[in-house]
């Protein structure tokens, strides 16, 4: 052994070729934490001073190559001044440069995932051979950052400006064949031939068949483009990236600007530009929120992993109710490998459910994301039925019938008698108490809520709702089932609205008050979209369904009368009373028509203003700051109350539920991280400013206590 560290080792193979292997001890994956970077530096120095080494392959001792930087170190790192963050980048680059500068042929043998710093390390090698199973990419923009270990410098010099911009600004993860087609990979081989192929490439270099020094030299010099072509290429790319990213996500544009700025520089100068720009985006509020979001997502996965350990075996599922929701659940379960029985009381409903599943599968086939044979396999694993004949073998049953307590209790009691003892039952309800539904059951410990969001195939969140008598095993089983379906489950305790709807309806309440006071719903929609929401509140109500919203608002008012019982007629109630339910029947706050491509588009409907006129004040213009405050305070304070009431287990889980469930702007990190960004003390002051409007604007005691102690949700 030439060198042995905790993360990197070097040993001499045959014919003067050495293997530098990443194998971070105590971790399931390789990642670039500070220890690994230091270890790599020592390993490279050992190679440099060993005259027996004529060539080098870089490998991994794990199932992945290197997943990237250790994100957990970013939180403290990014609190440093910009110049210190830039110095950290340059120090890491010195190690990568030392590897690149070794005057021997170097081949990275990529066996699995190589992302971020993992791919940047591969770019420092002279060549890259990928296993057919490998996937590579530079996803830093998804954290509000851009590559800081030489990625913006080396990648355009290896694959050209256009391809480099696409890879860095989009932050995608690419399969081996894609990497080969653009030049990131020099070869793709069968997985079990990877090491031999890498060694063979080193031997070809040593035999003089391939000029490895010329390959290295390209990365040390300015981009080989005439100045005018260089300018034109970057101008085109910048405009495209700016249009796609939008101003709420500055990192992609910052990456392109850095590449343009250092295009005419050598490696040393270019990396200094990269490091300076990286430090700037690292200090942005977007990076703070998006790094925090990544860490919150990891925390949720960890919590779910522990919860799912209590799961029963899940080999066969069933769904009761074959409407749009039931069909969506059946599709999701079957497409992810769990066969499912879909039961209803009418053939027509079963046809609708199968049609829904077939439609979703056909779209995947049309988009080349699924082969017809796979579609047939998935469809065959959905069994429509009018009876309970095969329910004795079912492990999990999801009830998805109409949102009516008596109907749901009747259906659940009926199916409980048809399944074996220990089968887990779940209700896909958005408003009805799980504890109340359980009153109709003999085995309430085997029952919980499993709230899917519509459309099921697109929305990543599933709320798993624990009733008063729900067992840990039942919760664990539903968490495991949601994970098998490719969803992110968040476990919450039973209360009116559970978590997501309980938090969403104060937001709608704030909207109703704004309209009552004379705000234009279109103006509010525009401000909130600019704030970062995928759609404004009026449009969102139309999409959800105003009839659904009015029903849920009644549940909220009954559950939280001190906050959510209003003394005025809400505009959404006016829409409901005039049979304007939103997209589902073509008219709500907006009208819905088909465009030339047959897609639904919203158009302004002046009659909306006439309908609400008797119930609102004279038209008044509100500035954006007040609209944002009056919309966001109710949502954020109710999220705090859910944490305070132990409805949700942690701030991370609460924020992720809002991101995944209702499209809270990711670059703002979630309601609780948004409070942190404003400042807890400052947010309490904002609550006090608007407290006269009603209970939904009052600061919860938990928030007041945190403000007095100088605490935050995410230290």
Automatic annotation (TrEMBL):
Catalyses which reaction(s): a (3S)-3-hydroxyacyl-CoA + NAD(+) = a 3-oxoacyl-CoA + NADH + H(+)
Coiled-coil ranges from the UniProt annotation: none
GO CC terms in record: fatty acid beta-oxidation multienzyme complex
Superkingdom, taxonomy of origin: Bacteria
Entry's Gene Ontology molecular function annotations: 3-hydroxybutyryl-CoA epimerase activity; delta(3)-delta(2)-enoyl-CoA isomerase activity; enoyl-CoA hydratase activity; long-chain (3S)-3-hydroxyacyl-CoA dehydrogenase (NAD+) activity; NAD+ binding
EC assignment: 4.2.1.17
InterPro entries on file: 3-OHacyl-CoA_DH_CS, 3-OHacyl-CoA_DH_NAD-bd, 3HC_DH_C, 6-PGluconate_DH-like_C_sf, ClpP/crotonase-like_dom_sf, Enoyl-CoA_hyd/isom_CS, Enoyl-CoA_hydra/iso, FA_oxidation_alpha_subunit
First-level EC class: lyase
Record carries keyword Lipid metabolism: yes
Alphabetical list of Pfam families matching this protein: 3HCDH, 3HCDH_N, ECH_1
Stretches assigned to the 3-hydroxyacyl-CoA dehydrogenase C-terminal domain: 497-592
The UniProt record lists the keyword NAD: yes
SUPFAM superfamilies listed in its UniProt record: 6-phosphogluconate dehydrogenase C-terminal domain-like, ClpP/crotonase, NAD(P)-binding Rossmann-fold domains
GO biological process: fatty acid beta-oxidation
Family: Belongs to the enoyl-CoA hydratase/isomerase family. In the N-terminal section; belongs to the enoyl-CoA hydratase/isomerase family.
Name this protein carries in UniProt: enoyl-CoA hydratase
Organism ancestry: Bacteria, Pseudomonadati, Pseudomonadota, Gammaproteobacteria, Oceanospirillales
């Amino acid at each position: 052994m030439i060198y042995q560290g905790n993360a990197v080792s070097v040993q001499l193979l045959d014919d003067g070729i050495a293997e530098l292997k990443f194998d971070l001890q105590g971790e399931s994956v390789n990642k670039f934490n500070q220890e690994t970077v230091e270890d790599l530096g020592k390993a490279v120095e050992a190679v440099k001073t060993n005259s027996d080494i004529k060539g080098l392959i870089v490998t991994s001792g794990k199932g992945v190559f290197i997943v990237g930087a250790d994100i957990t170190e970013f939180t403290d790192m990014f609190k440093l001044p910009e110049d210190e963050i830039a110095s950290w980048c340059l120090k890491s680059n010195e190690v990568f440069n030392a590897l690149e500068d070794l005057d021997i042929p170097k081949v990275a043998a990529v066996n699995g995932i190589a992302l971020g710093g993992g791919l940047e390390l591969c770019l420092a090698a002279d060549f890259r051979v990928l296993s057919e199973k490998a996937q590579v990419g530079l996803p830093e923009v998804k954290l509000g950052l851009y590559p800081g270990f030489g990625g913006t410098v080396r990648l355009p010099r290896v694959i050209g400006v256009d391809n480099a911009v696409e890879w860095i600004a989009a932050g995608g993860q690419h399969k081996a064949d894609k990497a080969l087609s653009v030049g990131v990979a020099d070869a793709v081989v069968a997985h079990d031939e990877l090491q031999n192929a890498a060694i063979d490439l080193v031997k070809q270099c040593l035999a003089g068949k391939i000029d490895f020094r010329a390959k290295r030299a390209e990365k040390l010099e300015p981009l080989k483009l005439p100045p005018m072509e260089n300018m034109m290429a970057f101008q085109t790319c910048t405009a495209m990236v700016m249009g796609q990213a939008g101003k709420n996500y500055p990192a992609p544009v910052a990456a392109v600007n850095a590449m343009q700025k250092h295009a005419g520089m050598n490696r040393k100068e270019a990396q200094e530009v990269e490091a300076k720009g990286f430090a700037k985006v690292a200090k942005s509020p977007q990076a703070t929120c998006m790094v925090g979001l990544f860490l919150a997502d990891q925390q949720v996965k960890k919590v779910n992993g522990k919860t799912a350990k209590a799961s029963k075996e899940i080999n066969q599922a069933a769904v009761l109710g074959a409407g749009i929701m039931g069909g969506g659940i059946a599709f999701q379960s079957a497409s992810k490998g769990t066969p499912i029985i879909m039961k209803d009381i009418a053939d027509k409903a079963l046809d609708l459910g199968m049609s829904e599943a077939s439609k979703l599968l056909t779209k995947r086939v049309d988009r080349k994301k699924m082969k017809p044979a796979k579609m047939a396999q998935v469809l065959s694993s959905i069994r429509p039925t009018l009876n309970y004949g095969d329910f004795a073998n079912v492990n999990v049953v999801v009830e998805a019938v109409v949102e009516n307590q008596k109907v749901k209790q009747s259906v659940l009691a009926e199916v409980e008698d048809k399944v074996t003892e220990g089968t887990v039952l779940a209700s896909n309800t958005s408003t009805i108490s799980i504890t109340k539904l359980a009153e109709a059951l003999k085995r309430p410990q085997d029952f919980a809520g499993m709230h899917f969001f519509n459309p099921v195939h697109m929305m990543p969140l599933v709320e798993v709702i624990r009733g008063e008598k729900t067992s840990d095993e039942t919760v664990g089983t539903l968490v495991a089932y949601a994970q098998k379906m490719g969803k992110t489950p968040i476990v919450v305790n039973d209360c009116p609205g559970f978590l997501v709807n309980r938090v969403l309806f104060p937001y709608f309440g704030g909207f109703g008050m704004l309209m009552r006071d004379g705000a234009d719903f279109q103006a509010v929609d525009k401000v909130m979209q600019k704030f970062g929401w995928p759609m404004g509140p009026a449009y969102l109500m139309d999409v959800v369904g105003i009839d659904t919203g009015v029903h849920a608002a009644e549940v909220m008012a009954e559950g939280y009368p001190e906050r959510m019982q209003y003394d005025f007629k809400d505009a959404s109630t006016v829409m409901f009373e005039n049979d304007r339910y939103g997209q589902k029947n073509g008219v709500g706050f907006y009208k819905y028509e088909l465009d030339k491509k047959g897609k639904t588009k919203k158009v302004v409907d002046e009659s909306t203003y006439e309908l609400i006129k008797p119930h609102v004040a004279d038209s008044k213009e509100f500035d954006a700051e007040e609209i944002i405050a009056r919309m966001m305070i109710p949502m954020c304070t109710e999220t705090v109350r859910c944490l305070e009431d132990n409805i949700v287990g942690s701030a991370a889980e609460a924020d992720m539920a809002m991101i995944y469930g209702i499209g809270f702007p990711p670059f703002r990190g979630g309601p609780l991280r948004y409070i942190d960004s404003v400042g807890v003390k400052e947010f309490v002051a904002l609550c006090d400013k608007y407290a006269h409007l009603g209970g939904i604007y009052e600061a919860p005691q938990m928030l007041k206590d945190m403000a007095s102690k100088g605490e935050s949700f995410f230290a």
